[in-house]
Design a protein that fits this description.
The protein is α/β, with parallel strands linked by helices. It has 16 helices and 13 strands. The structure holds 2-acetamido-2-deoxy-beta-D-glucopyranose (2 copies).
Length: 466
């Protein structure tokens, strides 16, 4: 038994190394990844192990919960070609603490961690949750990533104090405060007995807020209690999803600017919707968004002078209403000049004629863009356009395509004319190419969402790639 225990870390070390060597995960915790560290703190004390007959049945439920949780820890795509990656480890405790396994990269170390959890033999004595939390904190700090914000303890305990409840490691409140101080978030699960203690910590949320309703980020909170009435509920899929979703929302990733590159000269037009339905406040938001994009395009152009990148920003509304007018419209390479042109743009606030706007831009490209330049148009539209039919939109889009223009569409909100959007993106009324649509259509729920996070990076990168 002892020999097996001594071997285990070595085996796990081997798994860890093997996981790092896998070609699909060459950078286990590289800068571009966003690592999240989780440590399970599992109560196998008497109150859990011996509460129900057959003894140990609840411990088995805790083990199953942990294993299913571990199964949930899959790499997830997170903006900008980055992955959310997981490190997980576990300990169990009663009046002593045993490390089941230190932090290990998932999913490479998953099977090893799960079988170590399976192999746990419960101690069935006192409940020293404070000591266990402190040990878990130690594990989170010595292992895993350098990103302090993304460290979580999942404490599974009913916290049932034994008679003459002792807290030999300074007490639960002290342990939770230490976690807070270190920026580690504590989730306590099945904390029926100790939820008051978690609640007691100044600044923590009320139980109705923290018991898993709503997935508000737990930023700044010392701990989060995800209270379940009984151990069986731990195994509900929805609950597991909730906890992982909560961590996913809460996690912080360092700002990372995805570089964009152009493989050839490029002329890019950003065509803003200036019709009345947008509203002037939202129009200002799209102007800010357009400037962010333009800045990235023009910066990318500067790093490689062989590939000139030029940008124009145009606003459209009803028939014949496009600004700047053709005589003063030009592609620019100077961001300062472009930004002040955008700032000076007044909201037209009239009808919507997307076909006429497409015709305007097509003529502009024919006159102002050379054959060598890639021609990309980023069009704001919800597909609503007065008097337009799919056939008429198809004609206007195909005309633009014949001029070599590749169209990208940004759709804001839910009042969307879907058939029109599909034609705008593909130039075809008959069929919709889903894969093409994915790379050429961007949807956001609101105008504010345009400015959120790195959405502008995603859009600019796809427009640059074409
Ligand atoms: C999961 O969270 C949602 C709210 O986001 C809540 O309505 C639901 O009850 C939760 N489910 C479980 C099993 O906790
Ligand atoms: C860019 O434009 C600004 C303002 O229009 C001007 O002051 C600046 O000299 C220009 N920069 C370059 C490199 O041409």
């Amino acid at each position: 038994m002892r020999a097996a225990r001594a071997l285990l870390p070595l085996l796990l070390q081997a798994c860890w190394t093997a996981a790092q060597d896998e070609p699909e995960t060459p950078r286990a915790v590289a800068f571009q990844d966003c690592p999240v560290d989780l440590f399970f703190v599992l109560d196998t004390s008497e109150s859990v192990a011996l509460r129900l007959k057959p003894y140990g049945a609840l411990v088995d439920k805790v083990k199953s919960f942990t294993k299913r949780f571990i199964d949930n820890l899959r790499d997830r795509y997170y903006r900008c070609d980055r992955n959310l990656v997981w490190n997980a480890g576990a300990l169990h405790y009663s009046d002593e603490v045993e490390i089941i396994q230190g932090l290990t990269r998932m999913p490479g170390g998953r099977d090893a961690l799960k079988s170590s959890v399976d192999a746990v033999k419960y101690f069935g004595k006192g409940t020293y949750t404070d000591c266990a939390i402190k040990k878990g904190l130690e594990q989170l700090l010595v292992g895993g990533s350098h990103l302090k914000e993304n460290k979580y303890l999942i404490v599974v305990t009913d916290g049932h104090p034994l008679e003459g409840y002792k807290e030999p490691c300074g007490g639960l409140e002290d342990a939770v405060n230490e976690a807070k101080h270190l920026g580690v978030k504590v989730f306590s699960v099945v904390s029926v007995g100790i939820k008051d203690v978690f609640d007691f910590i100044p600044g923590s949320d009320q139980l109705n807020v923290i018991s898993c309703q709503g997935l508000a980020p737990s930023q700044g909170r010392p701990g989060l209690s995800l209270v379940k009435e009984n151990y069986a509920e731990l195994l509900e899929d929805a609950f597991l999803k909730n906890v992982t979703a909560q961590i996913c929302i809460d996690k912080k990733c360092p700002d990372y600017t995805c570089p964009i590159t152009f493989s050839s000269p490029a002329d890019i037009t950003i065509l803003l919707d200036g019709s009345a339905s947008v509203g002037s406040h939202n129009f200002d938001t799209t102007k800010r968004f357009a400037k962010r994009l333009a800045e990235r395009f023009l910066t990318a152009g500067r790093t490689d002078p062989a590939h000139d990148v030029r940008v124009a920003v145009v606003q459209y509304s009803g028939t014949g209403q496009q600004r700047p007018e053709r005589a003063s419209l030009q592609f620019l390479q100077n961001y300062t000049a472009l930004a002040s042109a955008v700032d000076a743009m007044d909201f037209i606030n009239d009808a919507t004629d997307v076909n006429d706007a497409l015709g305007y831009v097509t003529r502009f490209y024919r006159e102002a863009s050379s054959g060598a330049a890639k021609k990309r148009l980023l069009l704001f539209s919800d597909g609503n356009s007065q008097g337009a039919t799919p056939a008429a939109i198809e004609k206007a889009v195909q005309e633009a395509q014949r001029a070599g223009i590749e169209i990208f569409v940004v759709v804001v909100g839910r009042q969307v004319n879907e058939p029109h959007i599909r034609v705008l993106v593909t130039g075809k009324t008959a069929e919709y190419d889903v894969a093409y649509g994915e790379s050429h259509l961007f949807r956001v729920p609101s105008y504010q969402a345009l400015l959120r996070g790195v959405f502008h990076q995603t859009v600019s990168r796809k427009v640059a790639l074409g």
